[in-house]
Write a structure and sequence with these properties.
This protein is α/β, with parallel strands linked by helices. The protein is built from 8 helices and 15 strands. α3 runs parallel beside α4 (about 100-105). The structure holds magnesium ion (MG).
Length: about 260
């Protein structure tokens, strides 16, 4: 397990299940982030969250951890970036928000929100259904807009995510439901998409093959980073268990396995 991070261009830390769970930091997280900051090692906290980096900063603050918004990249931010770049029209893209307040905040001043199915729409940004921006009325508007040619932009392809109530339907589940109904193909923006890691590396000024990723998910973290040529470390504090490694192929095997982030201190 690498303990000297100066050999890397950047360290990528997954958030849920790696750095924190709900509102609590996982063992070693606070010390590892503190150490990267002290040693001035470039790092980024990454998440398939539909929220904005600014909201993640607040969540970190609640745990007594200080991280800058520029050091956080969420799938929600990646989706907004993608839509802005994909539709470079004057005034920005015309988009329908079927996601979150975070997405609403991030497109502010960079695009135009569509609210009715009678309006012209370039893209629907789709998040998880347990959100007021994705209620049934808005799902119906989104379906109508998709049938008229708007692009379905899924924040990420996650099927489910854990919450205090149990498993919730993920962004991928709602995206698939809508695109199946509209008979169109979606684009996904979060991990493990190459688009996500490539844009992150561009922002960091880091070469992918000189990055190391620490994550808890064999598909979205390990496989996603591995196919970019990154070094990968699996932590067992989240979704993946040691026995899961026997069920996946070589392309999903991490370079190292740790019990928690204290192994990197
Ligand atoms: Mg995770």
């Amino acid at each position: 397990v690498p303990k000297d991070f100066s050999q890397f261009d950047a360290v990528l830390l997954d958030l849920d299940g790696t750095v924190y769970f709900e509102d609590d930091p996982l063992p070693g997280a606070r010390d590892l982030i503190g150490r990267l900051q002290r040693e001035k090692i470039k790092f980024a906290c990454i998440s398939n969250s539909t929220s904005s980096p600014q909201r993640v900063v607040k969540r970190f603050a609640g745990m007594g951890i200080s991280v800058l918004a520029e050091q956080i990249y969420t799938a929600g931010a990646a989706a907004v970036d993608f839509v802005v770049q994909k539709f470079p029209r004057a005034g920005g893209p015309r988009a329908f928000n079927l996601a979150t307040q975070g997405v609403q905040d991030m497109l502010e001043g960079r695009g135009v929100w569509v609210e009715k199915d009678s309006e012209d729409c370039d893209a629907i940004i789709v998040g998880a259904p347990a959100n007021r921006f994705a209620d049934f009325d808005r799902q119906r508007i989104a379906l109508s807009l998709l049938r008229k040619g708007a692009l379905a932009v899924g924040i990420c392809a996650d099927r489910i995510y854990p919450s205090p109530r149990g498993w919730e339907f993920g962004s991928g589940a709602l995206t698939l439901m809508l695109t199946y109904a509209a008979n169109v193909e979606p684009v996904y923006c979060g991990k493990p998409e190459k688009m996500f890691f490539a844009e992150l590396c561009r922002r960091l000024g880091a070469r992918p093959e000189r990055c190391v990723l620490v994550g808890d998910n064999l598909e979205s973290d390990i496989w996603g980073a591995k196919r970019m040529g990154m070094r990968t470390i699996l932590t067992l504090t989240g979704v993946a268990r040691r026995e899961d490694l026997e069920k996946v192929g070589e392309d999903h095997q991490p370079d190292e396995i740790i019990m928690d982030l204290r192994a990197l201190l």
